[in-house]
Amino acid sequence: MTTLQQGNTSSMPAKEFLTFVLGDEAYALDIMTVKEIRGYESATKIANAPDYIKGVINLRGDIVPIVDLRIKFNIGEATYNEWTIVIMLNVRDRVVGIVVDGVSDVMNLEAEDIKPAPEFGVAFDSRYLHGLAALEDQMVIIVDIEELISSDEIGVFEGT
Amino acid sequence: MDNLSQYNEVFFEEAQEHLETMETLLLAYDVDAPDMEELNSVFRAAHSIKGGSDIFGFKALTGLTHVMENMLDSARNNELTLTTDLITVLLETTDVLKNILSCYREEAEIDWDIIEASKEQLGAKLQEVTGAEESNDLLKEEEDPGFGFFDDDEADDDPGFGLFDDDEPNSEEEQGFGFFDDDEPNSEEEQGFGFFDDDDNKQNEEKESAEENVGFGFFDENMGDSKNADDKPQQDENIGYGFFNEEPQTEPAATPVENTPAPQQAATQKKAAVKAPAKATETKSEATSIRVETNKIDKLVNLVGELVITQSMLNLIGNDVGESVADKMQSALTELERNTREIQEAVMSVRMLPISFVFNRFPRLVRDLSTKLEKKINLIIEGGNTEIDKNLVEKISDPLLHLIRNSVDHGIEMPSKRLEANKDETGIVKLSAAQKGGEIVITITDDGAGLNRDRILEKALEKGISLPEPLTDSAVWQLIFEAGFSTAAEVTDVSGRGVGMDVVRRNIESLGGRIDISSTAGMGTVFTINLPLTLAILDGMTVEASDQVFIIPLVNIVESIQPVSEQIKQIKGKQLLWVRDEYWPLIDIGKTLGGNVNATDMESGIVVLVETSKQRFGIVVDSLLGQQQVVIKNLERHYRRVEGIAGATIMGDGSVALILDVDSITQFIKSDL
Which residues pair with A88 in a beta bridge? Predict the structure, then answer.
């Protein structure tokens, strides 16, 4: 209902974002892309894949690749323990898991809450960012996860 | 309308099926020996499409099928005889109907002009034929009432007895003979009875033990037999008599004979005779099959795969169970294992279809092509009931289509040329399928001119294709699979458009199959395609290398050996294995695919010797874990393609193991080691 009411005042209706942690930084992604959240389990290595692609796991019969964003963007320490979290994403009809240090919250944001990101100080290239948002005192970086995961830079998808 | 549209897809599928039935039946329709039951089936199919399309509002279909239905109705009511010419028109109409159907399906614009043209064509034919039929009859009565009607039937050369020795002895004709021989057919109505009376007695004497219902029993049998009755002239004779004997009793005045040629008359009776059993089989087949969406089956296959994995996980746990319950646990697990395997097999078999689903479309293709090219071709199909995976059925269709076109167009020579070469005027294209072990072998054989070695070489040079060394025949034949290669002297309407042979080979290889050619000048060409039975399951050898598990497809494996140091030779720093009087290049799979920097110690390692269509080599692994059937999972569903990897599977403990693509690993031979 709130979505409908707010629809009048902003160009984009409010969306829910899942916030997650990489190192010391807080990020958020569109919750509609999230399939499920699970613990880290060791993956089967894939030949000639970059180090941030941990390999593939069996997700109830589907063979799904796991990408460690911490390694890819060199944020935090890529340690794996029982608290390491994998967010399984549904992106462009594919399932891809991303390894993060933790998930914290779900937040509601309207288009006007998202400020353009500056060109500095963020691990992600601005191409993959929606912008920045403030959650209480903390700055949250809103990632365009669909764009990021399907990019050549990650290389999970064929020839995009 | 809208609430009906949810059923549109069902209608489309059914209509499609009906159209295919029509096509198949029309193709099989023997104008000389019309099978009334087949004609009825065609009529029913047309009628169903008409009815359905009317309800759903697909008016374009309704109009055309209506005209078609009229023609078929006339045919089954003996008001007209279906000639080859008419069958062609009917086939063309089914094509138009197929087009309209796909237009509706894709919500494209309907071309009403074509429909009208088609309607008119049908109508005109109908007019023409019904008119001609009458005059024909008049003609017959004038010149030779007895045999006149056989003019249509190709049997007029030797009407009296030739028929019985002939290759086309069908009941109707014989009945006809008896009929006309004995009787001057100047007044049909009367002729029938007088004649039958005669025969009646004769028949009774001859066949005292005849059952009450001889007439009917006879016809049924006759139906089934009529096609292979060739060698049984005596029986045929009997059939003839039996027919006449019983006919007047069962259906005395019902025969609507008004100048109707005898075959049709006979056919009507046959129709009456088989009507009841035919209906019974119809309902039976409806009850024994259902239509299921393929993704439901895929899901089922997937779930069963999961079940198999869970079951083997339980097996692992079961090994650790304490003594008190161990025995019970083990026997329960064994039971579970057996049940799971059976479920798996049953579910897999749901995906299997007879290959005739693909083969059935080729008689039409060959018929059309041979007409167009003015060649005489006899298409022989064998092994149509060989079952293959549904996915394969769909994907093998295009390559086969192309190969058959190729055989018809390039393989079989023109009739005159064939006669010059002392061959039968009619060329033979044979399409056959058979299961051999874990593979399906499909062959396309023609008895044409064979591949022209010189032309191929000439063409290859012209195209700048590098020639293989040594230049063996089979190597030369493989050249036609090169991109842009065509041996046709000129691009004809039939070939020279669409896919080339390179696409054929690529398609087949993408299915995990391979294609070979053998050809003899003047004798013909054989294309042999080997395909895996299913894309879903694979027999593999589980190996371990660099702490990772890989599956090597069993079909590629020659043997596994533990080499001794004398067998390992070095060439330019590369290792070769000397075994079976051959040097085998080696690939350290742990290093190549596992990313392990340290090469496996040859002395302790094991070499799996493998073979592909291109090369033989050895795969170095740490250990062999065992042989098992694995469910192939597509890696590319969620990830990009990986060189050297054909797919993945899920092991008993739930972990993922990669399946090696032995063919594409060969490329690592040059760079590796």
Answer: A36, A97
d(CA B366, CA B447): 15
Smallest Cα distance from A98 to chain B, Å? 13
Residue B538 has pLDDT above 90, yes or no: no
Helices then strands, counting H and E runs in chain B, come out as: 23, 18
- Best of B550, B639, B645, B661 to disrupt the A interface by mutation (most A CBs within 10 Å)? B639
For residue B35, give the nearest of B364, B237, B378, B264 by alpha carbon.
B264
Contact list, B656 vs chain A (CB under 8 Å)? 43-44, 55-58, 63
Structure tokens of B358?
């693909």
Q: Mind telling me how many Å the CA of A63 is from chain B's nearest CA? A: 6
Average pLDDT over residues B617-645: 85
- pLDDT given at position B601: 67
- Give CA B336 to chain center in angstroms: 37
Mention every residue, 6+ apart, whose C-beta is less than 8 A from residue B484.
B463, B500, B502
DSSP class of residue A115 equals B
In terms of Cα–Cα distance, which of B25, B97, B21, B24 is closest to B65?
A: B97
CA of A97, closest CA in chain B: separation in Å? 10
* Portion 305-344 of B in contact with A at CB < 8 A: 305-306
Contact list in B for residue A94 (CB cut-off 8 A) is 637-639
pLDDT(A145) > 70: yes
Beta-strand ranges (E) seen in B465-581 are 514-520, 524-532, 537-545, 548-553, 557-561, 568-571, 574-579
Residue identified by tokens 């005596």 is B234
Task: Identify the CA nearest to B167 among candidates B236, B107, B98, B220.
Answer: B236
Residue numbers of B between 509 and 548 with CB closer than 8 Å to A: 548
Q: Which of residues 634-673 of B touch A (CB under 8 A)?
A: 634-645, 647-648, 650, 654-658
* B240-274: pLDDT as tens digits: 443 444 444 444 444 444 444 444 444 444 444 44
| pLDDT tens digits, A2-14 | 444 443 444 456 7
Q: How far apart are CA A110 and CA A126, in angstroms?
A: 20
The dihedral sign for the CA sequence B166, B172, B176, B179: positive
Count CA within 13 A, CB hemisphere, residue B221: 13
Closest among B301, B302, B299, B332 to B314, alpha carbons compared: B332
The interface predicted TM-score (ipTM) is 0.81
How many C-alpha atoms does A11 have within 13 Å on its Cβ side?
3
Residue of B nearest to A92 (CA): B638
Q: Cβ contact (<8 Å) for B306 and A61?
A: yes
Window A:84-123, CB contacts with B under 8 Å: 94-96
B105 CA: distance to closest CA in chain A (Å): 25
Is A47's CB within 8 Å of B593's CB? yes
Contact partners, residue B284, CB within 8 Å, separation at least 6: none
pTM listed for this prediction:
0.51
